[in-house]
């Protein structure tokens, strides 16, 4: 039953994102791929730069879709995402808080203990997860540095 629900959600999401302009070949390719993925007990997904060519709202919607479709339920798939998007990282923070509050955002929430977030900076790997007085979040300070520099330069002009 959960596999059929996933199939429907994935097909609907792809249909919406592609604006219904799929060719017959692409429909078959997507259906075949999704059948193979959904018929396994556990799958590892690696998604590189999902933010490419997507508006911020679509990035957030995509992350919610990935979390609710891939990381929930009986299968507990593994998802690895590489990103430079502050929208995706900030959405993860929202999904962490939603989990802590026992609610879901568009059907998605994520457990702090089941998430790892790292940044590579100056050749070093840095863990960005922060737990402070019961608050779970991802440190976004380094994401703000470039934009803060731009605002500082703007103010100097």
Specify the number of helices: 5
C-alpha termini separation? 60 Å
Q: Give the percentage of residues in beta strands.
A: 15-25%
Total E-strand runs = 6
> Which structural class do the helices and strands define?
alpha+beta
Reading side by side through the largest sheet, how are the strands ordered? 1-2
- Order of helical and strand elements: HHEHEHEEEEH
Gyration radius from CA atoms, angstroms: 18 Å
The parts where pLDDT drops under 50 for at least 5 residues are none
User: What does the average pLDDT come to?
Assistant: 82
Report the helical percentage.
40-55%
Shape: globular
| Largest pleated sheet | 2 strands, parallel
Describe this structure in words.
The chain is of the alpha+beta class and 157 residues long. 50% of the residues lie in helices and 17% in strands. The strands form 3 sheets. A two-stranded parallel sheet has the order 1-2. Strand 1, helix 3 and strand 2 form a beta-alpha-beta unit. Helix 1 (2-17) runs antiparallel to helix 2. The longest helix has 16 residues, at 2-17. The mean pLDDT is 82.
Describe the secondary-structure layout.
Layout: H1 2-17, H2 24-38, E1 44-48, H3 56-70, E2 78-82, H4 86-101, E3 118-121, E4 124-127, E5 129-132, E6 135-138, H5 141-156
Parallel strand pairs: 1-2
Antiparallel strand pairs: 3-4, 5-6
């Amino acid at each position: 039953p959960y596999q059929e629900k996933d199939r429907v959600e994935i097909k609907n999401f792809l249909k919406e994102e592609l604006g219904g302009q799929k060719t017959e070949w692409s429909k078959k390719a997507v259906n075949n791929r999704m059948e193979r993925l959904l018929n396994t007990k556990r799958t590892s997904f690696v998604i590189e730069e999902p933010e490419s060519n997507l508006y911020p709202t679509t990035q957030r919607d995509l992350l919610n879709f990935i979390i609710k479709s891939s990381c929930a339920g009986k299968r507990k798939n593994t998802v690895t995402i590489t990103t430079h998007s502050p929208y995706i990282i900030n959405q993860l923070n929202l999904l962490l808080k939603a989990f802590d509050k026992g609610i879901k955002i568009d059907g998605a929430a994520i457990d702090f203990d089941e998430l790892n977030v790292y940044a590579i900076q100056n050749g070093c790997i840095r863990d960005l997860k922060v737990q402070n007085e019961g608050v779970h979040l991802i440190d976004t300070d380094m994401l703000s540095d470039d934009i803060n520099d731009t605002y500082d330069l703007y103010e100097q002009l």
